[in-house]
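Message: A physicist's question: would you kindly supply an amino acid chain plus fold tokens?
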Amino acid sequence: MNIQSLQKINEYVWDIPCEENMNVPGRIFASEKLVQDMDEKVREQIRNVARLPGIQLASIAMPDAHWGYGFPIGGVAAFDPDEDGIISMGGVGFDISCGVRTMKTGLNKEQILPRLPLLAEQLFQRVPAGVGSEGLIKLSPSRIDEMLMGGAAWAVSEGYGIKDDLAYIEERGKVTGAQPEHVSDMAKKRQYREMGTLGSGNHYLEVQVVSEIYDDEAALAMGLRKEDVVLSIHCGSRGLGHQIGTDYLKDLAASLKKYGINIQDRELASAPIYSPEGQRYFGAMNAGINCALANRQIIAHLVREIVMDMYPESRVTMLYDISHNTCKVETHIIQGRKKRLYVHRKGATRAFGPGQPDIPDAYRSIGQPVLIGGTMGTASYILAGTEEGMTTAFGSCCHGAGRALSRTQAKKKWKGRDVLRSLAEQGVLIYAHSYSGVAEEAPDSYKDVSEVVDVSHKANLARKVAKVKPIACIKG
């Protein structure tokens, strides 16, 4: 991106001044290098989002931002329904409520290493992953509606996990406002056999070791010590979420003329929040969020069973579960006034600061855990939300490293077998369902996750708590 077109606020904040019908400025949280490495299309998408009705404060991009569908991936925007604010499918994405769940094992690296290959093999065999993967759970139409209403709480009631898990999931495992009746039969049909499955692409199940502690107080509150082993699950709402996105892209596009909404990009198809079309999408999207929460809960149950069976001395407990493709109704202060806003986070993570009532009691004094997925050859990070981030970015942070190369470019540059061999030499076991998928996810096809996280820390969006490195990874 051409930095000459940006206004430098400080080392980690860059503004796109209001111009050409922009209602608010654009704002990019990034280092100079990360800004320069961003595609010019990111700037264009930030500006297009800034033109949408009812947008508040700024059209925001996180340090991992890259070109996406309508909104940039790594985009954040909040809309006021009382100021003709809109809701946009492009501001959520197709993989509704894709997110990360991290669990503690009560084990350290020394304890887990002797049987790690067998553990990885068991996880690979018993947790379904890959394109078109199917789980053991087969849902009837009535039961899928129960799942769409109940989320992770429904999964626990069905015997997947324990009630204590729910306190450590965003929204305590279930969002209100889900309306399964606004989810198409096709979307539901795609999910009948996909519950408890990882899927493909950048989704993963990792065994990780805490390699660094940056904040002793926050790490103590989260129950993390150096050399501890944790488990992380990254996946979303599978075929159901994708179909909801497909269905409502058409539905919202058809409403643009009706409500006189002008957009620069058809991928920003939107409707007024309080319109029938907007409310239908919001109800369907909430159902998609619950689907993802239930899906991760089921996978977590399978993982817990495997680990505790192999390591009787283990105790698998929740650290946190957080999503990064959502639209949530939240209260934020804009120019001294409290407002109820519809906050879109597309490839961006909620990162609420200390004292917020939505944070579990154990973390309320330190801020919400923020789980940042890296690559299978580098590292992931655990951060904590800040008070400053609440005012500058609606309590939001990056969600991962962010792609530097497209999947097509990655497959042209690397071979899956070579990537597996290289990672094995680094001490990372990879179990994957396709060499093509491994090539797409080659670590060097992503930005430097440490630089992305450092910017988030230095911009005070969230502060670093711990670094975790993968020692085994299950891929679709």
